[in-house]
DNA sequence: CGCGGTCTTGATGGTTATCAAGAAACGTGG
DNA sequence: CCACGTTTCTTGATAACCATCAAGACCGCG
């Protein structure tokens, strides 16, 4: 966990984040000057449940999961954060505890902007406010879809939604050649904790999809979706 | 579905809504002048999935549910709206379809403020902006809790959370005497569609809780929680 | 008071969690 | 680069739990 991230260029950090994408060069410089960076190894915890985040945290590189533990020890993943995603937005508006843990599922470079600095940014560049709102709204959309999946869909359908979601996210990150192929960001257990089943069930369902010729797995993490239509026909 | 709601006083409508609670009398008058009212009978649909809401919709009286139907016809309830709650906030920030239906589960008086008018309000009274943000954040919190319930908790635990949630909401609405007693806002089927089980299961679990002496049911809708601690020990 | 809708309860079956063991993948150090 | 040890993954057997199907009871409303 080094204090600074040497590998990421300054401007890159802010430029690839959607909420700053409309700023011009000079404005971006201002933003960049406010950013502190921090590196986390895989499996390191970025933040613990119950703590108060002191600002906006932006994933610059790597991926992270936000999750909770139930009373009986089960893990439920609430969000997957990819490069460009942020968390800690709650602390910008209300003085409340964060109710989930965030852990790196890949080595992560984190960009941090303090609450105070970010509030000034929002005042100086009001459009950022709008961007944050949009992000909150789309996060609500996503959470609502998760609820529909968990509450009303069969396990088969949940696995299919999961593969489509991860495939699309991967597609957005690195431009892919045709025939959706991507690397799973989570272990079987991670996938299971995202869709509310056990790792054994994930294993069995993926094997079944492979036998039906809908997907093809190479190694444990690489997946190629052969029949996207079949997945979408949920 | 009459065009105006005669029974609700003008100022009441805006005053009881948290997002306007900080405004003074004159400002409230302005808000009130922008409001259009509409009444819906029980079971009427306030809005259909796929439509674009044209402004902010505030429940002034009654209760409503927001829900989706899965491909195979199952209903999943996403939100319960009580008096003072609002929906349609998405339309204020982005031009996107609403992805759920909203239906009255009691006769509802609805206050509507058009997108354009509300955006002017936000400009004139910037604090409203902050209030909306706070509401979005707390809605995210609630959705995350639902996900934890649906994905990682046993059905018993989900029923218990449900009763606590409904009890607390009822407590907030009408001040209750001690010994949490309240009227269920939903049928067994409604409860079931909220926590992702079948109505038969809800029936059985409630009966079990009664036999254990944790709750007491009178009629189909009235519930008294005798042992709140046992419910909280999830 | 009687009817329609809602609710409860029982019997059964399907689906997934759990327990268990072996196989594959991965990382490490020689 | 290979061998080893560890972690992760797969697969099977079993059991628990809930959905489903079905019938009768209760409730609430006209």
TrEMBL record, chains A, B:
Residues 153-229 form the HTH crp-type domain. GO terms for cellular component: cytosol. This is Crp/Fnr family transcriptional regulator. InterPro entries: cNMP-bd_dom, cNMP-bd_dom_sf, Env_Response_Regulators, HTH_CRP, RmlC-like_jellyroll, Tscrpt_reg_HTH_Crp-type_CS, WH-like_DNA-bd_sf, WH_DNA-bd_sf. Gene3D superfamilies: Jelly Rolls, Winged helix-like DNA-binding domain superfamily/Winged helix DNA-binding domain. Pfam families: cNMP_binding, HTH_Crp_2. PANTHER family: CRP FAMILY TRANSCRIPTIONAL REGULATORY PROTEIN, LISTERIOLYSIN REGULATORY PROTEIN. The keyword DNA-binding applies. Keywords: DNA-binding, Transcription, Transcription regulation. It comes from the Bacteria. Residues 19-139 form the Cyclic nucleotide-binding domain. One of its GO terms (molecular function) is DNA-binding transcription factor activity.
